[in-house]
Specification:
By secondary structure, the chain is mostly helical. It has 2 helices and no strands. The protein has a domain of about 55 residues. About 0% of the residues are buried.
């Protein structure tokens, strides 16, 4: 009698262990899928943000109306001041002058 009860208890515990292992595996699979979905959503959001940036390229279409407007405009003469432009020299912490490459100068 005791042997049968012990055997039944052992089988019950084994079944519970199998069921709990299955639950853990399913939970793990769901977590993996959720993380993958979150990664895909983040990637899609990043890509959408990149595409949403306005383009700095302006395409002008030249037509007869634009050309006629250009011909009708008066020439405006702008006189520049001949005084010397004051240039502020950038220096590093050690006092050396910082010379930027041409492509970085404004």
């Amino acid at each position: 009698m005791k042997k049968q009860e012990k055997e039944l208890e052992r089988l019950r515990k084994a079944e519970e262990k199998v069921i709990s292992d299955q639950v853990k595996k399913e939970k793990h699979k769901l977590e993996v899928l959720e993380r993958a979905a979150a990664r895909k959503a983040a990637t899609a959001a990043r890509n959408a943000a990149k595409k949403a940036k306005p383009s700095h390229i302006v395409i002008l279409k030249v037509g007869s109306s634009i050309l006629s407007n250009l011909g009708a405009q008066e020439a405006v003469i702008v006189e520049e001041d001949d005084s010397e432009a004051v240039r502020v020299v950038q220096t590093s912490r050690s006092g050396r002058e910082i010379i930027l490459p041409q492509r970085l100068r404004k």
